[in-house]
């Protein structure tokens, strides 16, 4: 069976945990979009892994890991991640394959991300400052892009970097009055990246198609969430890749028709980091309660996440465009202790009620959430492993989410640990 896991909200839904669980029955796990803006957490016993570029299957010692063409690879972060796992006796040798067509995030991308955000002041997007937007801009622009495969020909890369750095220096000086950077220094760093990463670099499209023909089971891991998708999210408050399931085939060269099941991951409430409209946001005691109980601080940047009620309008939209079969609903335990729990089931925009999500920041910012209220529960549910052992109000909440979204909730998270999961 081949599966794909994507986020149904604005990221951080718990994809890392779900991918780690499903990886038990997969031969290969593939990351196909985004870069080190992602932070995917896997908790196994006392060990906690925060993965930015390696697929979340990497903590399982026999799982093959692929970083496909659609990923923006920050080589420094990737090398650090490989070393961090090695320190825990988890080696990636012979089981990590990086696409030669994946684009590299280099220092000037991170500089540009920072300079641009600073210059925008209160209009900034609130990016992770990991150089994602500038790297994908260079990919689309073509002339000044560096790919993993370029690390294989250092002489050609040296000349290429000189031309790129000259160009970037002129732009950064003109727009931001910033000091020039040295192409030679960047080239020295790239030599180290080449030493460490070229051994893992290959044609991953060929590798994946051969694996499919050989009957291997593949798990595709989306980064970010559907509402951050460049084309289908809340533009411009999005990331720079197709982070819905629609990005899967372009991001790895494998058609979606080989995927048997699409899993959408959502939290039992909603969070968002960075700027942009968020109709069900609770910028109040409820939001703080969720943030404290759910430890809602960014895995990548440590920023406090904005918190709000479950938004069935937004999640239904993500399910529809992503052809999602099953929902994994995480962090049910975080809602414990609330007297009442609300679900947003419609928006009012300019006096009109709608239940179809407008993926347009201007229209969405006019939306006020229409809620339905359900009774909460007080019992600790973190040790529950069977749906029928959940408090009645928690079961009713799950069933209402299923009715509103039209899809079965087959995985329920009741804590961060691998084992704190209910399967239905
Ligand atoms: P991702 O980006 O979608 O992989 O999600 P993150 O790792 O950025 O954020 C999810 C956070 O919630 C992590 O700290 C997880 O360990 C944690 N988590 C995942 N599922 C659950 C759950 O069911 N309950 C609780 N309390 N924490 C969870
Ligand atoms: P995972 O995979 C949550 C958000 C940023 C910002 C916007 C653009 O862990 O779910 P970028 O750096 O991509 O240019 O920032 O997207 N963002 C995420 N939010 N989880 C993520 O990844 C995110 N990756 C990017 O906060 O609002
Ligand atoms: Mg995350």
Please, could you describe this protein's structure?
By secondary structure, the protein is of the alpha/beta class. Helices cover 32% and strands 20% of the residues. The chain contains twelve helices and 20 strands. The protein has helices at residues 15-22, 75-87, 107-120, 132-141, 154-176, 183-197, 204-213, 248-252, 285-294, 312-322, 361-364, 392-405, and strands spanning 3-7, 28-31, 40-44, 47-51, 64-67, 72-73, 96-99, 103-104, 201-202, 218-221, 261-267, 270-272, 306-308, 310-311, 326-330, 340-349, 352-354, 368-375, 409-413, 421-423. Strand 16 (340-349) and strand 17 form a beta hairpin. The model has no long low-confidence stretch (mean pLDDT 97). The structure holds guanosine-5'-diphosphate (GDP), 6-O-phosphoryl inosine monophosphate and magnesium ion. 6-O-phosphoryl inosine monophosphate (IMO) binds at residues 7, 10-12, 37-40, 125-128, 130, 132-133, 223-225, 228, 239-240, 273-274, 299. 6-O-phosphoryl inosine monophosphate is lined by residues 7, 10-12, 37-40, 125-128, 130, 132-133, 223-225, 228, 239-240, 273-274, 299.
Short description, anyone?
By secondary structure, the chain is α/β, with parallel strands linked by helices. 32% of the residues lie in helices and 20% in strands.
